[in-house]
Design a protein that fits this description.
7 helices, Ubiquitin-like (UB roll), two-stranded antiparallel sheet, four-stranded mixed beta sheet, about 180 residues, Translation Initiation Factor IF3, alpha+beta, about 45% helix
Length: about 180
């Protein structure tokens, strides 16, 4: 048995341990039931549960909820449009979100699923710097999907994404126009 402030009270029968707990106006809590003899501790169980729930809330606050962003394409999607999708996926991955890329087949397009699989793997290779394939391309009914997850190290770089963009990029131009309107 362990006391309220951590001192060892020694091995004692259950009745005596309950009497000691009652005299101290504390609860007798079994901490390690698998050990021989079982280890019990004197504590205020209500206060212990409250502090434990408080710690759990704090750890949940620190966790970032990860959302899944979805990009839709078709087998006939043009190269430029795919580049736009890759840029969007890169932005989502840098923000810490997972990305699901869906390619919907219509009619007999599903015959060319191997070409779509290759195109999805090309996208994954283009995004290898910021993300990794969590689930490789798989066929699900009349659509093929692939799931990408952000790399563990990309979370640290997420804040510097805007400063790393080249000054002549479309994002930079949009930022300049937005600032000009605010001023």
């Amino acid at each position: 048995m362990v006391g309220a402030d951590g001192e060892q009270l020694g091995v004692m029968p259950l009745r005596e341990a309950l009497r000691v707990a009652e005299e101290a106006e504390l609860d007798l809590v079994e901490v390690a039931p698998q050990s021989r003899p079982p280890v019990c501790r004197l504590m205020d169980f209500g206060r212990f549960k409250y502090e434990q729930s408080k710690r759990d809330r704090e750890t949940r606050k620190k966790q970032k909820a990860q959302t899944v962003k979805e990009l839709r394409m078709s087998p006939k999607t043009d190269r430029h449009d795919i580049d736009v999708k890759v840029r969007n996926a890169e932005r989502f991955l840098r923000d810490g979100d997972r990305v699901k890329v869906n390619v919907r087949f219509r009619g007999r397009e599903i015959v060319h699923s191997d070409l779509v699989r290759d195109r999805l793997m090309e996208m994954a290779a283009a995004l290898a710097e910021v993300g990794e394939v969590e689930r490789p391309p798989y066929l699900e009914g009349k659509q093929m999907a692939m799931v990408l997850a952000p790399k563990k190290t990309s979370g640290k770089e997420g804040g510097s994404r805007k400063s790393a963009a080249p000054s002549g990029s479309a994002d930079g131009e949009v930022m300049v126009h937005a600032q000009a309107q605010d001023a």
